[in-house]
Amino acid sequence: MKEFDFIAQLQQQPFPQLPEIALGIGDDAALCTVPAGMQLVTSVDTLVSGVHFPSETAAFDIGYKALAVNLSDLAAMGATPKWFTLALTCPPNMEPWLAEFTQGLLTLATQHHISLIGGDTTAGHLTITIQICGFVPTGQALLRSGARVGDEIYVTGTLGDAGLGLLCVQNKVALPQKAREFVINRLNRPTPRLSESVALRNLATSAIDISDGLVADLGHILTTSGVGAEIQVKRLPLSPALREYEDAINLALSAGDDYELCFTVPQQKSVELSHMLPEDSYTKIGMITATPGLHCFLHDQKIKVPKSGYQHWAPEAATATKDLNLTR
Ligand code: ADP
Ligand code: MG
Predict the structure, then answer these.
(1) Cβ of 158: how many Cβ atoms within 10 Å?
(2) Cα–Cα distance for residue pair 103/13, rounded to 1 Å
(3) Torsion-angle region of residue 61: left (phi > 0), alpha (psi -120 to 50) or beta?
(4) Closest CA to 122 of 158, 86, 150
């Protein structure tokens, strides 16, 4: 299959049709309309095989996850996604792989009623770049910078599952079959918290999605907002699968890839929050403080905050890209 055959196949997929999309795949560029009173929200994320997912990951899951992580960024902004573009670099002769990959994209796109409007197709090391666009009512986007002293800190879902899933696929941890399936599913098919995010628009003072681990991502809120935080580690929401694992707290604090939301809400709005979100969908984990930095407590005892946050180009990230060194 050649490049244009793949593009033609993509064009024939039943991606949702949206009134805001005047022209999709097939011309030099797509044409879209932003309704009055809305701001266009846009974000892009790249997944590199061997860096963002193990190279043996199923093609369906790679497509699903590539879109999910982008949807998660829009959720973190309180935005509603509308369309995306796909820049796909992959080795030649990947027909069955491409068909599965496309189904992964289509499944999640259909669920969230968003459309593929264009992209680019090239040959090379498997790399997927998705750019996503959506709308937020003007002035209502959730930013990292709005947390204030006294705000309560919350997270959606459970933390650390994807990290444990990665340890499972790397054969570093053995779990009972059910637990293993659960955590690997959390790794490969993250749930972007879009409905929660819309409910938070007029409630949360700040929000971020947890892609690099709670410590790293809450850290971004703290730095950008110029505040500190105290977290009670006993409050961290752990799935039954993670609870069985000895190092659960460390994973919940520092493992990436969960794509849950971390957000702050003024104390006086906590009752309103409970009316907006199902009780079991979110957990209060701590408070914003004036003292800078992130401080974790086990009861009254302060505990060491584990390192978290993967940094591309850092020396410790070099193994995944050792074959890709260019002439310097
Ligand atoms: P050009 O040479 O003008 O850049 P291309 O040949 O790259 O155009 O692409 C032709 C059309 O197919 C464009 O509308 C482009 O957006 C779309 N397209 C190409 N690759 C992809 C892809 N991977 N996913 C979605 N649309 C794609
Ligand atoms: Mg092109």
Answers:
(1) 20
(2) 9
(3) alpha
(4) 86
Residue located nearest, by CA, to atom 10 of ligand 1? 26
Residue nearest to atom 16 of ligand 1 (CA): 118
Q: Which amino acid is at 238?
A: L
Given a contact cutoff of 8 angstroms between Cβ atoms, the answer to whether 135 and 79 are in contact is: yes
pTM, two decimals, is: 0.94
Nearest bound ligand to the CA of residue 85? 1
Kindly give the confidence (pLDDT) of every residue in the chain, 328 residues in length, as a single tens digit, with 9 standing for 90 and above. Answer: 888 999 999 999 999 999 999 999 999 999 999 999 999 999 999 999 999 999 999 999 999 999 999 999 999 999 999 999 999 999 999 999 999 999 999 999 999 999 999 999 999 999 999 999 999 999 999 999 999 999 999 999 999 999 999 999 999 999 999 999 999 999 999 999 999 999 999 999 999 999 999 999 999 999 999 999 999 999 999 999 999 999 999 999 999 999 999 999 999 999 999 999 999 999 999 999 999 999 999 999 999 887 776 667 766 665 555 555 555 5
Cα(178)–Cα(239) distance, rounded to whole angstroms? Answer: 12
Q: Give me 8's structure tokens.
A: 């033609």
Q: How far apart are CA 220 and CA 263, in angstroms?
A: 11
Alpha helices in the chain (DSSP H): 3-12, 59-76, 95-111, 161-169, 177-188, 194-200, 214-225, 240-243, 248-254, 270-276
- Ligand 1 pocket mutation pick from 11, 32, 120 by most atoms within 8 angstroms of CB: 120
Measured from CB, residues less than 6 Å from any atom of ligand 1 are: 7, 10, 25-28, 86, 88, 116, 118-121
